[in-house]
Amino acid sequence: MFFDRPESGELAVLVHLTLSQGSDPDDPREFEELVLSAGGDPVALLTGQRSAPNPRFFLGTGKVEELRELVALHGAKLVIFNHVLSAGQERNLERELQCRVLDRTGLILDIFAQRARTHEGKLQVELAQLNHISSRLIRGWTHLERQKGGIGLRGPGETQLETDRRLLRARIKSIEKRLGKVRRQRDQGRRSRQRAAIPTASLVGYTNAGKSTLFNRVTRAGVYAEDKLFATLDPTMRRIAVPDVGAAILADTVGFISHLPHRLIEAFRATLEEAANADILLHVVDAAALERERNIDEVEQVLAEIGAQDLPCLKVYNKIDLLPDWPARIDRDAEGRPLAVWLSAQTGAGVELLYDAMAELLGEAVIQQRVRLPAALGRLRARLYQQKAVVDEVFWDDGGSELELRIPQADLQRLLSAEAMTLDDLHWVDLAPPQQLAG
C-alpha cells in the first residue's frame, strides 16, 4: 500500500544535522529565517550529529522516531530539512512521518516563487522548480499504474508518470527558449550601453545585506525592499550621475546565500550576467552580521561560478547604524585606491563617500587615452569603431593611425583577448598602459 501525500501545512518541524564530512554547515538561525520568509511557522527544531547521512532517511532510525514524535506532538503537517535530500530520502521520510517533507532547495525555491514579480523572474523560478521536481514525480503518482482505458482505448499506452515527464520536458524546453530570448534582449541592451561607453556598477551581496535599500538611497527608484531574505529577485537598473565620470548604470541583483542550489544559479544566469558583465562590483556586506566573513566567502564563491571573480570590486559595509559609534569612512590600500566604504543605507550616512569611491574606480575603469595602431591591427581598429570607442583618429604615412579612445577597460580587454593581446601590447602615446596608470 502506497502513501498518498496529505495537504501541506504551515506548522513545521525543522531538522538540522551537523555532519562531520562535507562542506561547512549552514547556520540554524538563517535556516529559521528562511522558513519564516516562506510563511512557515516553526514549532520545533530537531538537531543532531552524524558522520555521514543515512542513505535511506538521511537521519538515523532513532532520530526518525524522535522526529515522528515531534510531528505528532505539535500536529505539524510539514517537516523541513536544512540539507539537500535525494528524491528517495524525501519519499521514505514522507511514508514514515505521514506528512510533507521539504529540503533546503525546495524551501528556497518556494521563497523564490513568492518573490518573483516580473515575467522573466517567474519564468526563471518555474524552470528551477520543474528541474527540481522532475526526479520527484514518482512520489505523486505511485498510486497509478496505467492510464485507465475504456472500450476502444485499452492497450499498453503510456503510464501516467511517463506522460507527466514528457509534458514536463516540453514545458522546460519552452521556458528555456523564452529565457534565451530574454538573454538576447539583455545582451542587446548591454551592447548599447557599451557603445555609448556608459560604465555599469552592479550591487551584489548576501541576501538581506541591504542592497535594495542602498539602491533606493542612491537612485530614489523605490524598488521593493524589506527585512526579508530574498526580498529582491528581479534585476533593476537605473542611470545615475557619478562625479567626474558622468552617467553610469547601477544594477540591483538577486541576493546570494550559503550553498545556493546550482540549479538556481543556472536558472538565474540571465539575471546574474548583469553582475558578470559589470565594470565594477559593489559587494554589499551586512557590517553588523555575526557571520560577516562567512557571508563574504559565500558571495565570492557564487561570483566565481558566474565568472565575475576577477572584476574590480569595492566592498560596501552597510548597516553601520547598528554598530555603536562606528563612523562612515573609506578604507584604502597602500597605493591609495578605495577598497571599502562603511555607510548606512538606512540613514544615508556615508553615501557621499560611496560616490567618491565609485568616481575614483570608474574613472580608472573607463580608458580615455590615445593609442597608435599599425595597419596590421585593422581588425582591432574596426572592432573599436563597432564599439563606438573612437573619439578621434589621425592617420600616419605608414598606413597606421593614432586613435583617441573612450571605452570601459573591461570591454577593451575583451576585444584584445579576441586578438590574443593585452593592454601592454598596445603602443600608448606618451602614456603608460591603463592598468599601470590606475595605481
UniProtKB/TrEMBL annotation:
Keyword entries, A-Z: Coiled coil, Cytoplasm, GTP-binding, Magnesium, Metal-binding, Nucleotide-binding
Record's subcellular location: Cytoplasm
Cofactors required: Mg(2+)
InterPro entries on file: EFG_III/V, G_HFLX_dom, GTP-bd, GTP-bd_M, GTPase_HflX, GTPase_HflX_N, GTPase_HflX_N_sf, P-loop_NTPase
Main location: cytoplasm
UniProt GO cellular component terms: cytoplasm
Coiled coil regions, renumbered to chain: 158-185
Residues holding Mg(2+): 212, 232
Subunit structure: Monomer. Associates with the 50S ribosomal subunit.
Function: GTPase that associates with the 50S ribosomal subunit and may have a role during protein synthesis or ribosome biogenesis.
Name of this protein: GTPase HflX
Species: Exilibacterium tricleocarpae
Gene: hflX
